[in-house]
Fold this sequence. Notes:
Layout: E1 2-3, E2 6-7, H1 8-39, H2 46-64, H3 68-89, H4 99-121, E3 137-139, E4 144-146, H5 147-169, H6 171-181, H7 183-188, H8 193-215, H9 225-240, H10 245-265, H11 273-284
Antiparallel strand pairs: 1-2, 3-4
Helix pairs in contact: 1-5, 1-8, 1-9, 1-10, 2-3, 2-4, 2-8, 2-9, 3-8, 5-6, 9-10, 9-11
Amino acid sequence: xxxxxxxxxxxxxxxxxxxxxxxxxxxxxxxxxxxxxxxxxxxxxxxxxxxxxxxxxxxxxxxxxxxxxxxxxxxxxxxxxxxxxxxxxxxxxxxxxxxxxxxxxxxxxxxxxxxxxxxxxxxxxxxxxxxxxxxxxxxxxxxxxxxxxxxxxxxxxxxxxxxxxxxxxxxxxxxxxxxxxxxxxxxxxxxxxxxxxxxxxxxxxxxxxxxxxxxxxxxxxxxxxxxxxxxxxxxxxxxxxxxxxxxxxxxxxxxxxxxxxxxxxxxxxxxxxxxxxxxxxxxxxxxxxxxxxx
Length: 294
């Protein structure tokens, strides 16, 4: 059976690839949206944190025999602690000045991190194995679904929706939002606002690291993996609306699917389709699809 002259298995396989890419877009743009929405920082180091998360998993396996499931917990904790250190020592001095300084600082940090890992490991990729439990594929009748790629989509949706629920629907999320909008008032209630801010940045960094661990068995672990992805992720955040958490999730998944379909019908445009959509959205709605107009 064909769809528009394309074998259905090839068509669905490309859609699955788009959904997997969209899952990574959603997770990374979610972390960016959390940090920008609550702290007002355009975190250009997010791609580097994603890369470091993948390297924590790979180094843990090579040096200490840490398996994939332990790395899913360890890498976000390690990178989250690194993010907390960066926020406490550097970023906290930039909150009351022009956001461009935060962007420049995090861009510089990203270049430093990439340079360190390039010096230590070179630019050739390192392989990370798929965990034994998720090897192989499942025959769905109409297509063959690789088990690990199905796991990526499921895990990404669970993490994204869980994060959205915590920030938008719980008391902790309400406290976080209040602490960033009116820190003096929240501080008067005995809440440690600087600690909340640090934990927010650390949480966003941890989300990037988690995405890096999930990506490690699919792509080569390389110092360039973050810089290759971060520009597309920024486009996703702009389209969804800067600071809109739900917008980032939905837009990331949708753009992954659109990119996959473009590779089927017009491959030459697949590398630019996200940016074309961003340009159209900015002309029609500058605040993004889910952003709030100022």
